[in-house]
Write a structure and sequence with these properties.
The chain is an alpha/beta fold. It has two domains: 165 residues, Bordetella uptake gene, domain 1 (D-Maltodextrin-Binding Protein, domain 2), CATH 3.40.190.150; 114 residues, Periplasmic binding protein-like II (D-Maltodextrin-Binding Protein, domain 2, 3-Layer(aba) Sandwich). It is 44% helix and 20% strand. Strands 1, 2, 3, 4, 5, 6, 7, 8, 9 and 10 form a ten-stranded mixed sheet that branches. α2 packs across α10, α4 packs parallel to α12 and α7 crosses α12. The longest helix is centred in the C-terminal third of the chain and has 22 residues. The radius of gyration is 21 Å and the shape is globular. The relative contact order is 0.18. The N terminus is likely disordered.
């Protein structure tokens, strides 16, 4: 009787992906180096929920904000390499932090291992004053050097790098105005305190649709299917392309077999249609691939932005 009951229960339970059988027992901690409520925290909770539902393991999100996400990253770098502690990684924590903070308490290349690229977000250039096109914004900047203002999220953030690249490629000069968060920057743009900023499409869309802000260009390689009338930045300045990207890293000494199992299980969870739809509605584009592919992306981004950081003199003494 007991054997028959176990057999029936086994038939009723959803089959776990094969990779889940190779995972550590858990519970798993997904560390976010940023405060609750933002895009990175939102994505971390999507990943945790999807992975838990798909694998039957316990996944929890732990917020450890501070120092541009590097406090959380340092804690993961020091964690036991069992595969049960993961970092929500992005440009600042794993690609550019070492160039900005010479005394960083971890080495992103040596102390952290890529697991999977989880999602990306398109970036748009938005304005609330004057210009209706990217070419028009550049013309204004040429006519009044340094008078056109850009709302940057903190110092050493990709939005500052992008403004610097936009200025360099366009042969113009902008003045950065720094805000502590993307939300503060968006509010400043809505109050017309700054002329333009870079924002995720998800953040900008409600304000574009209401007419409060105008989208000048998207930084994708091709026009967006949902916004076919919005030109790419590269149509005005060839080569100006970027996106926000987020993934997972583990302590560097995590066994390769465990990394592979995590990649397979979390990738499987992210590819589920319900998860893809939910992430899409929140402004994310699911982009899981291999851990090697994610590592290659991080290396390319490092090579792209570290020269910009050095040119801007952004390293903290």
């Amino acid at each position: 009787m007991k054997k028959r009951l176990l057999l029936v229960l086994g038939l009723l339970l959803p089959a776990l992906p094969a990779a889940a059988e190779e995972l550590p027992r858990g519970p798993f901690r997904i560390v976010s180096g940023f405060a609750a409520g933002g895009s990175i925290d939102t994505l971390a909770r999507f990943i945790a929920r999807a992975a838990q539902d798909r694998t039957g393991r316990t996944f929890v999100v732990e917020n450890r904000p501070g120092a541009g996400g590097t406090l959380g990253a340092a804690s993961v770098a020091r964690a036991a390499p069992s595969g049960e502690t993961l970092l929500v990684s992005e440009l600042g924590t794993v690609a550019t932090a070492r160039a900005i903070f010479p005394n960083l308490p971890y080495d992103p290349e040596a102390d952290l291992a890529p697991v999977i690229l989880a999602a990306t977000q398109p970036i748009v250039i938005v304005s609330g004053t004057g210009a209706t096109t990217l070419a028009g914004l550049l013309d204004r900047a040429r006519q009044a050097p340094g008078r056109v203002t850009h709302g940057a999220t903190g110092v050493g953030n990709v939005t500052q790098f992008l403004a610097a690249e936009l200025a360099r490629r366009g042969g113009v000069e902008f003045t950065d105005v720094h805000y502590r968060s993307g939300g503060e920057g968006t509010n400043a743009l809505l109050r017309r305190e700054v002329d333009f900023s870079f924002a995720s499409l998800a953040t900008a869309t409600p304000h574009i649709q209401s007419g409060a802000l105008r989208a000048l260009a998207v930084l994708e390689a091709a026009r967006l299917p949902e916004w076919p009338e919005l030109p790419t930045a590269a149509e005005t300045l060839p080569g100006l392309e970027a996106s926000f990207w987020y993934g997972l890293h583990a302590p560097a000494a995590t066994p390769p077999a465990t990394i592979a199992a995590l990649n397979a299980a979390i990738g499987d969870a992210l590819r589920q249609e319900e998860t893809r739809r939910a992430l899409s509605a929140a402004g994310f584009r699911v982009a899981p691939g291999t851990s090697a592919e994610y590592g290659a992306l991080v290396a390319r981004e490092r090579a792209t932005w570290i020269p910009v950081i050095q040119r801007l003199g952004l390293a903290v003494p």
